[in-house]
Amino acid sequence: MSKHVLIAGVTGIIGSATADIFGEDGWQVSGLARNPVPQPGVTAIRADLLDPASVGEALAGLRPSHVVIATWLRQATEKENIRVNAAMVRHLLDALRPAGSVRHVALVTGLKHYLGPFEAYGKGSLPQTPFREEQGRLDIDNFYYAQEDEVFAAAARDGFAWSVHRPHTVIGKAVGNAMNMGTTLAVYATICRETGRPFRFPGVEAQWKSLTDMTDAKLLARHMLWAATTPGAADQAFNVVDGDVFRWSWMWERIAGWFGIEAEAFDGTVRPLEQQMAEDAAIWRGIAARYGLVEPDLLRLASPWHTDADLGRPIEVVTDMSKSRRLGFTGFQPTDDAFFALFERLRADRLIP
């Protein structure tokens, strides 16, 4: 049977990791992006998912057996997030319909399924932790739900299987990504080391003290490969996290140690990264010039707003993986090792010194 995956959002943290994992497993990999970049083993396809004509033309003649949707565009309001991101999914699946080749579509969303969209993130009546897949949708508009509904409707019409994958904050490499905690913390730690500024936790006490989890991009990719090839995983939604839990009071020390700096003790004062890094663009340009780094634009590497949202939640966030375990997925990744592997790659690729 054909093993040809089309990855929408192939240049992002999740998409690039998925291309690597499927490629290593012997799949033909096609990657769609608005501005594709060369990736080993990936056939690049340039298209704008907001332009159905562009997508139809770009995908004409393509016959993928599997599709991974790992892309979204941030908008000013949730109403616009719903309109734009649902349309992107719809245009993609509409363009693939004439070929009739698709057997499985994997959609990547996230824990905002349980926590609510950015406009109401971590507020109101939320399900108890650990989050489990059988917990229903919140009674609030959410572009994740709209994306799911587009996939469900197309699957019912066109006869393919689907899976929904809900990671927590994803650790992985990408440049120009809207949500990138790992690289953001690497850049922040580098600035602290180079300037002598204290390495201060930017979040709230609840995140400092409570248990949490995260998701390594390659583990998420392995989960999608598993779901694509496991009949019992068809037409299911899954949480996807590394399998360990930690407290930021421990992880902050671990990250500081990797960069050879001291972690300042958290005193209960909230110091968001958006404030701490507000004037750091020029500092980063200087660091990039001094060490010959390939990306001098701080905004292409760091997303302080997203890290602040995660570390500013007033509630514990722990995710249950029992559903995947019962069906046979055994992947596990220590989260501190995931951070360290990312930092090593950023250094090897000359994105940090």
UniProtKB/TrEMBL annotation:
Domain PRISE-like Rossmann-fold as annotated: residue spans: 66-353
SUPFAM superfamilies, A to Z: NAD(P)-binding Rossmann-fold domains
Pfam family, any one: PRISE
Protein name: Nucleoside-diphosphate-sugar epimerase
Species name: Labrys monachus
